[in-house]
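For reproducibility, we list the full input for the manganese (III) ion complex.
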Amino acid sequence: MAFELPNLPYSYTALADKGMCQETLELHHGKHHNTYVTTLNGFVEQDSSLQGKSLEELVKLAYGRDDLQKVFNNAGQHWNHILFWENLSPSGGGIPGKLEAKINEDLGSVDQFKEQFKAAAVGQFGSGWAWLVLAGDGKLKVTNSPNAVNPLATGEGTVLLGLDVWEHSYYLDFRNRRPDYVNNFLDNLANYEYAEEKLNKA
Ligand code: MN3
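The corresponding predicted structure, in tokenized form, follows.
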């Protein structure tokens, strides 16, 4: 069963007045994410040891394996982007009560969380991701990772929120101003309701 590009949970124009224009979403979802999916399917088709596995299984299997580096890159990016689309919302930016309490408890305050997340996202040299995870010790933690690497692969915890900091995610809207893109995500685009649902299920 081949992997498929999921539909966005909103239209290509839905985030335009929130700092992510139609062209960004069309290219990012319709071209970049789609290429990860079709490339991954090509690798799976050619290698019977990869067949019949879930996406999560492929991410964990291929991570750190020199012979499966390209498989990891595409599986990781497929997994990351499925999560990323769910992490954005036309009505984003508002942090629901239970998540806010958990942030205050583990990270000090919402402002401190945002500062940490911004530092992780801006400090990721080159392409990669910033994450809010529920770590194995039950505490929230902010991390980052290069390229396609994610906390599922590294075992750092359950992802509540992930932000794509590859240039293709922000260059049309913010040019080289990654800090502005990150601030806009945290204040206007982040789907914290989704993050709280994941916290509840974890
Ligand atoms: Mn991307």
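Strands lie at 128-134, 140-146, 158-164. The mean pLDDT is 98. Both points were considered when choosing residues for closer inspection.
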